[in-house]
Amino acid sequence: MNADRARETVAAILGQIAPEAELDDVEPSEDLRTELDLDSLDFLGLIEGLKERTGVDVPEGDYPQVRSLAGLITYITSHT
């Protein structure tokens, strides 16, 4: 999966979790939870949504790598 497709996938999942979220307003290197006001359950929903849509399983130990939009896109592209 390329970076554009990964971003589209993240946007689609976030659209279900936080419909008011504007991904274009997110600073790519900042913490998604802070930028989009996501709680821990929302973040877990994002991780589960990724697994369902892409098959990418993000173990808890890798959560620091996927805390930002840029990190999440890099993680997805390198694991698909």
Describe it for me?
By secondary structure, the protein is mainly α. Helix content is 56%, strand content 0%. The chain has 4 helices and no strands. The chain has helices at residues 3-17, 32-35, 40-54, 69-79. It is globular, with a radius of gyration of 11 Å. It starts with a helix and ends with a helix.
Shape: globular
Major sheet details: none
The Cα radius of gyration reads 11 Å
Beta-strand residue percentage: under 5%
Helix content: 55-70%
Oligomer: single chain
Overall SS class: mainly alpha
| Terminal-residue CA separation | 6 Å
Regions with little confidence, pLDDT below 50 for 5+ residues: none
Number of helices: 4
Average pLDDT confidence is 95
Short précis:
The chain has helices at 3-17, 32-35, 40-54, 69-79. With 80 residues, the chain is mostly helical. Helix 1 crosses helix 3 (40-54) and helix 1 (3-17) packs across helix 4 (69-79).
What features would you highlight for this structure?
single chain, 80 residues, mainly alpha, 4 helices, 56% helix, 0% strand
Compile the SSE list and pairings.
Elements lengths: L2 H15 L14 H4 L4 H15 L14 H11 L1
